[in-house]
Amino acid sequence: MLAVPGLALAQRAPTIDGKIVAGEYAKTFKHDKSGMTISWSIVGDTLYMALQVDSPGWIGIAMMAEKDDKKKGADTYIFTMDGGKFTALDMIQVKRTGKPADDTEEGGKNSILQAAGTYAGKTWTVEFSRKLKTGDSNDMDIAPGQKFIFMIAVGPEMSIKEEHKKSERWYIENFSL
Length: 177
Known about the structure:
single chain; 6-stranded antiparallel beta sheet
């Protein structure tokens, strides 16, 4: 193949199927304390993200530009098995603590374009996509290279209706995609 200086091949969009294959994502980060591996690619105006972690229950991530009032305002995504069926939720942290609310209940929209996940044993593999700028005021606009706070949470059970006090959480300061 002939290499042309200054010409880069376009990144191919990952397949959102709940399975991660070698080379599917452009970047990967392993969070040692939670054990979560976060992989992502940005293709055009779309973020493709994959998560892998062991958890006895639901898993979640959240993004926020800055931490003013604990978790309030965090753009949140929770993944669970509901009756054996994979469920992906686009949510917003309305209060400074407690569980988040569904975006659609707070005047927003579901900004998840595609999502797929598997749960085997206690191991989650989740893939989802969303626009970098969704047009939803409940979602954080994402700019590649811009630093933000990335949160990871794992729940003790699959039900997200229970209080989140028993969930484990980690904050990653200065994260960027």
